[in-house]
Amino acid sequence: MNFELTDIQKEIQQTFRNFSDNRIKPQAMEIDINKSFPHQLFKEIGDLGFFGMRYPEEVGGTGLDIVSYSLAVIELSRGSLSVAAACTMQSLMGTYFLYRFGNDEIIKNYFSEAIKGNKIGGICMTEPNAGSDLMNIKTTAKVLEDGFLLNGQKTWVTSAPVADFFTVLARTDNHEQLSIFFVPTDLQGVLIGKSIEKMGVRASITSEVGFNDVFLPKNYLLGNIGEGTKCLKEILAEIRIMTAALAIGVAVAAYEEALEYAKTRVQFGKPIGKFQAVQMKIADMAVQIEMAKKYLMYAAYLSDNNLPRQKEAMIAKLYCSEMSVNVCDEASRVLASYGYAVEYNIERYLRDSRFTLIGGGTSEILKINIAKELGL
Ligand SMILES: Cc1cc2nc3c(=O)[nH]c(=O)nc-3n(C[C@H](O)[C@H](O)[C@H](O)COP(=O)(O)OP(=O)(O)OC[C@H]3O[C@@H](n4cnc5c(N)ncnc54)[C@H](O)[C@@H]3O)c2cc1C
Asked: Which atom of ligand 1 is nearest to the CA of 122?
């Protein structure tokens, strides 16, 4: 295993770093305060090729590896976790099942447009009574002669208020297991609720979605009936690696600002970074971020090389998300009252970082599953 990035990986990292510094960071506070979906940035990130990074060239993507993708995600999240969350939804869960199972019409009119950033996709799995426990999903797809009739209530759907299409997890009346459906949002009976007011990632807008007798033609079933959970497992490790990268990005942003502040804030006649108590905090943050990055790269390397990686992806997601909240919290202590002020970025980083504890599996669920992998 080689820890040196390739020239292409370095170039991708630099491209997204520049974009983050020049385009995302200057707007990050404003879009958070306005709780507005960043349409313009989203389109520009599409133009950079981000949404197609994980798809082959034949379908308009660039077929890049997960290491490259993770490097880009870290940089986007360093600029704004809201922007990065909306964009990773589009580039992974929002489009993956269309790519895998969509017919020509779905690929041409939706998938291809989505990876250019011209259409927006979301995934509807969670329901009011089914979060971690996805097998308790109640949304139904009644099997008809010529298609399906979809009914149910979803919640916490990222990008729903601006989405053109969804991938929906539902239960058919002829199978115990779940199935996946493609649902354009302009179909009759698709009801988008108002945005959920959130603690963080406020510019990644999220809402409830209702399906009221939505008719779906047969070819809107993605994959086979009853194989939804099996298909989800195909990208589970990648989702977790991606969430770990999101967590690292916001932690890096908090660390960089705390480091700068420690060098410039003067108390008792010297920069606070000259006090050992502050030095310990900054050093601890740097160590945790460095460890997180290296482990993330290890999990991504396993995935790129098609090696067993479920446990490692869970460890990466668990460690990086807990690290992220910790680093953002420590950074806010370094800035003290200014870390509490809305006109500084740190309070946003701290609020945003908590999202990474939830998406891709909560810490508790991950620990249970890691224990299972360990034979318990
Ligand atoms: C900003 C944001 C965006 C989101 N976007 C999407 C999206 O686009 N699409 C989508 O489908 N969903 C989305 N979600 C939902 C997310 O996937 C769920 O919130 C997540 O699965 C957890 O479910 P829950 O919140 O219902 O928590 P619950 O499952 O109710 O868990 C509550 C608590 O109980 C613990 N717990 C649950 N079961 C166990 C157990 N067996 N053992 C021990 N502890 C347990 C959990 O760890 C947690 O601490 C989003 C959530 C957020 C916050």
From this structure: 8
